[in-house]
Amino acid sequence: MSENDRRLHREAALVAGRPAPHIPPRRAKAHRIKDDDAAIAVAHELAREFATGAAERDRERRLPIPEIERFSQSGLWAITVPKAYGGAGVSAVTLAEVTAIISAADSSIGQIPQNHFYMVEALRLAGNEEQKKYFFERILDGDRLGNAFTEIGTKTPVDFKTSFRERDGRLLLNGQKFYSTGSLFAHIIVAVARDENGRVHLVFIDRATPGLNLVDDWTSFGQRSTGSGTVTFDDVEMTRFQVVDHDIVFERPTPMGPFAQIIHSAVQVGLARGALAETISYVRAHARPFFELSIEQGYEDPHTIHAVGDVAIRVHAADALLARAGRLLDVAAADPTHETVAAASIAVAEIKALATEVAELAATKLIELGGARSTLESYGLDRYWRNARTHSLHDPVRWKYHHIGNYYLNGLLPPRHGAI
C-alpha cells in the first residue's frame, strides 16, 4: 500500500467514526483468581452488576468502559493463563460457563474478551518462553488484549493485506482492520499480519505506539457496544519479540479452533438464557390474557405455558451441549491428536449451531408472548434478537451442519481453522 493509499484509508476511517476513548492506565494490579469455582462465583457477582444498565448501554451505543475495567480487574480475563505461570488455568467448561453467565446479563460485554482469550491461547501454544513469561504476567496484572484480525475489501475474511516488512533497519507494520472487537478497551492490540514470505503472524502492539489508530465506527444494529470498529497501522515500529506465529497452531492438531468457537457458542447460550429469563419476568408482570379465555392472568394462558416450556427445554439442551463441548475440548487440550481435536471441533460446532437457533427462538418468543407493549423502546427487549442475530454472523452456521454431517456420515475430520 502506498503512503497516499494509507493516508486515504486512515482519513476515511477517522471521518466515518469517532476517535477511540481514552483508557486510563491501571491503578492497581488485578485480583488473581485461583481456581474454577472462584471464577464461576466472580462471574455471577459481575453479571448482577452488568445486567443493570444493559438496555440503556445498548440503546445509547454507550461503550461499557467502567464495566470492562471492573471485568478485567476482577481477574476473570486471566483465568486461562496456565497454572505454571501463575494463572488459574481453568477448564474449557469453566471458561464457557463464565462467558455464558456474563452474556446472559449483557452479550456485548460477554463477547468483548473473546479475542483476548484467543490470543492468550495462541501464546500458550506458539509463544516462546520469554514471550509467555512477559505477556502472561501483564495479563495477570490486568492488561487486556484487543483484536485486530479481519479486514474488509478482501476476497474472504481470512485474506490479509496487513503486513510487516524491514525498511531502513526498522521493522514496520502497515494495514487496516475492521471488526476489531475489544481493541477500543485494550492495553495491547494484537494484529494479524503477514511477513515477507506471506506467513501469518500475531503482532502484539502497545496501545500508545505511534502510528496505531483506533476508531469507534461500529454501527451494527446488534452487539452495539462491543466497539468492533477500525484499527489502522501506519509504519508502526515493532520488534521480533512482539511476533508470534499464527499459522503454526493450525498446521498441527491443537485445540485452537474449537477454543475460539466455544466462547462464541457460550455467548449465544448466554443470550438464550437471558431472553428466557426476561420472558418469564415480563410475562408474569405484564402479559394480559387472550380475550377468548376466562382466566385472570396472562401467564395462565395454556399456549404461553407450552411455549415457555418448549424454550426452556431447548435452553437446557444448549446448556448440556455447551458443557459436553467443554469436556471434549479439555480432552483435546490435554492430548491434542487428529482425533481428539476433531471430536472437540465437532462438539463445539454442534453447540454453536444449536445455541444460535435457540437464542433467536428465545428472543422471538420474548416479544411474541410479551405482546405489543413489549416492543416499546423503554423496555429494550428487542436487543436480545438483534444481538443474537448479529453475533451469529461471526461465522456461517450452515457450514457447521456440513462438517458435522460429514464427520458422522462419512468419517471425515473437519478442517483446522478458527471457525470450526
TrEMBL record:
Where is the Acyl-CoA oxidase/dehydrogenase middle domain positioned along the sequence?
A: 149-236
Keywords noted in UniProt: Flavoprotein, Oxidoreductase, Plasmid
What enzyme class is recorded for this protein?
oxidoreductase
**Does Flavoprotein count among this protein's keywords?**
yes
Its EC number is 1.-.-.-
Acyl-CoA dehydrogenase C-terminal domain location is 262-395
Q: Where is the Acyl-CoA dehydrogenase/oxidase N-terminal domain?
A: 44-143
Molecular function as annotated in GO: oxidoreductase activity
Q: Which InterPro entries match?
A: Acyl-CoA_dehydrogenase, Acyl-CoA_DH_C, Acyl-CoA_Oxase/DH_mid-dom, Acyl-CoA_Oxase/DH_mid-dom_sf, AcylCo_DH-like_C, AcylCoA_DH/ox_N, AcylCoA_DH/ox_N_sf, AcylCoA_DH/oxidase_NM_dom_sf
Q: Does the keyword Oxidoreductase apply?
A: yes
The similarity annotation says: Belongs to the HpaH/HsaA monooxygenase family.
Q: From the Swiss-Prot or TrEMBL record, give the protein name.
A: SfnB family sulfur acquisition oxidoreductase
